[in-house]
């Protein structure tokens, strides 16, 4: 089973995405399932996890509608207002009736307050999330976001957390710190996982290859182990620095030399277990 644990769709006619502006060039248009289908078929991907692109019910409802039409969408990471625990609980009661709804993400990097995710009311919202057996995707763009992961893991120990895009390591600069130390601390908590996704857009967009992302992937193996790592394409954002085929090919190249069980975990088993696909 090959699983892409992180991809997006958006429909500009149905949902408002304030962050998606013309400056994003090729991403500034409606991008939907029929466009991805041939790409995952070519790569031999069996299932995908569709991840929210906006903190809104409209986006979540749109994703669930999409999943109902395409059986290869095995899971949806939607949204509820974590800073309003009571409202979040009511919505989760509804959403979790749909077996494809697997977890929640919030665009914490769009919040003006870099400490948004560790506010008391958000922690309460995450406890509600855990009580429903749902997972939490962390978008860690700033080092400050990554710093908060151990706090979340401690305060909500029964919440399964996954760090999207390996928290965007400084690949383009060829640096490891402070990213490596922060990641190691986060990885010390057994309820924290990570996605090998979005690494191409953290590298040099024009010239990146497996050689650029491999040191960061190798380090992730060292601190998390294969059973807490999962592949994601981050498509269509990935198109800013290559395309689906290149991300798949170069990630596989960076995994060369690993055991079959490690590769099978990263390319499928971990995501299946984490999201209960």
Order of helices and strands: EHEHEHEHEHHEHEHEHH
- Number of E strands: 8
Note the beta-strand portion. 5-15%
The number of helical segments is: 10
Cross-sheet strand order for the largest sheet = 1-2-3-4-5-6-7-8
* Overall helicity: 25-40%
CA-atom Rg in angstroms: 17 Å
Major sheet details: 8 strands, parallel
What's the shape?
globular
The residue ranges in which pLDDT falls below 50 over 5 or more consecutive positions are none
Assign the structural class, choosing from mainly alpha, mainly beta, alpha/beta, alpha+beta, or little secondary structure.
alpha/beta
Termini Cα gap = 11 Å
Mean pLDDT: 97
Structure description:
The chain is about 40% helix and about 15% strand. The chain has helices at about 35-45, 55-70, 85-95, 120-130, 145, 150-155, 180-185, 210-225, 245-255, 260-275, and strands at about 5, 45-50, 75-80, 100-105, 135-140, 160-165, 190-195, 230. The protein has an 8-stranded parallel sheet with strand order 1-2-3-4-5-6-7-8. Helix 8 crosses helix 9. About 45% of the residues are buried.
